[in-house]
Each structure stands twice: as structure tokens, then as C-alpha cells.
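Handout, page 2. Input:
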Amino acid sequence: MSNVTNFTHFMLTAYLDLGMFRYLVFLLLLVLYIMTLSSNLLLISVIVLNRTLAQPMYLFLCSLFLSELYGSTMLFPMLLHHVVWQLHQISVSFCFLQIYCLHSYATIEYLNLAVLSYDRYIAICFPLQYHSHMNRDRMIKLIVSAWLYGFFIVLTTEGITITLKLCDNKIPKVYCDNYSVVRMACSDISYVNIHGLIVTFVTIVIPFLYMLYTYVRILRVCFSGSKSLRQKALSTCMPHLVTILNFTIGGSFELVQSRFNMGGTPIAVRVFLSLYCISSQPLLSPLIYGFNISKLRSMCKGLLLSRLHQR
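Output:
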């Protein structure tokens, strides 16, 4: 324990020396961030402003898009700052704030996807009971529960991490994450790992198994029904299924990088793996839903055209 130092900053060591190319990277990241904000805000506006979309599925989607605004805003401004100024250190307090925000975003995002799976499961497998099952009170409880659980469970995890004494201050990523800090601890972290496994099981494994179960049931109903029923069901389920797969794959990349030694992997690959989950989902999700759900697509077009005519 004599090696313990009270650090005031962490060093983010995964940034590449880009030289003058940093301005190009900055511009690309800025465009990506603006597209992410614009697409999510557009769909949120369409859902909020149109009373015909005051249905559970669209309100669950609104919650999903809000979580993506939250997650991308906690990532991109910091990335832009580090890239353009080539400052790769971050204060301990801001690092823990970023850990809290990014981990709570990921938790809320995944639970929102699970809630959408439940909504589609009830709508397709029990259509006659849908409105009684998915009433206003249950809808509000599902949305609020996803957000409150995400904020609370990450708070408990980070509360444990903050108590650790660290022997290093180098984080091998372009942003702060919880397990990278835990791995720098000087003391025994077995209790931290046990807590992490429990949280992972409750937060990831159980929702994943439930989503798998719902889609097995949905697909069984689709392929046993008429062609029109199958087409209608798949048109609303496919965007959701694609976003689940994308987020699960991205989360798997992040899990592998956090838990295993990636020292032999090229740094550019490590940066891609660490950014894919957080940066791709907030952009791809509104695009997938916006293009594939006909009501959203037509109303987005109408809103954009009306704005253009006003100008």
C-alpha cells in the first residue's frame, strides 16, 4: 500500500497523435454529434407534437431517444475537446461524473429496449388485451422504472469504486469507464467483481433472456398467422430487433475490452471498440425507426416540409 498516490487527474492513453489531422477528426466527430442530436430531437418533436402518436409504443420510443440524447451529450463534447486541444487528462471528479453518466445511459438504454420488447410482445401475442395491459399507469411505471433503476444501480456501483485506493492513473481508453478504474486498485477487488457480476446478471442477462423469449413468441405467432399479419408484425418489430442486436454487439465489444487484456490489439481497433457502442446506437436507432416505421417517416417529412415552406 506504500505505492498509493492521491491522484488529481487520470490520463486517457488511447488517444492517437493525430497532428494536423486532428481538425479533420474534430470535424467528423462534430458532424456525427450534430446528426445524432438532430435525428433524435426530430423524432422526439414529432412524437410529442402529434396526438395521434400518443400510444405506448411511440412514448416508449420517445424515452429511448431521450436516453440517446443523454448518452451522446455525455460523450461527444468531451471527445471534441480532447481531440482538438490534444489534452488527454481528465480530473478525477469529472472522470467519475462521466463514468456515472455513460454507465447509467447504457443501463437505461438497454432497459428501454426491454420495455419495447414487452410492448411488442403484448401487442402481437395478445392483441385483444393490449389496451388493458398497456394502460397509462403501467406505461408511466415502466418508463420511470427504467430511468430510476439506471440512475440508482450505477450510483451503488460507483460508490464502491470511489472508495478504492489506486496505484495508477492511466486509463487505456478515450473516455473514463468504471472497470478501468477498478483495475488500477492496489487492494483486493474480489468484492467489487462479485458486485459487478450480480449487477451484470440483473441488468443485462435477465433483460436479454426476456427479450429473447419475447421474440421467440413473436416470431412463432407471425409465422403461424396470415401473410398480412406477418408483414405488419415484422414491420414494427424489425427496427427494434436491429437496434437490440446493434446495442448488444457494441456492448459485447466493450465488455471484452474491459475484462480482458487487449495490449496486443492495435490502438485504433481498441478506440473503435470502445466508441462503437456509445456513438453508433444514438445515431443508428432514430434513423432505423424513422425510416422503417411509416407513421414516423411520413410525419417527419411533413414537419420538415412545413419548416421549409415557412422559410
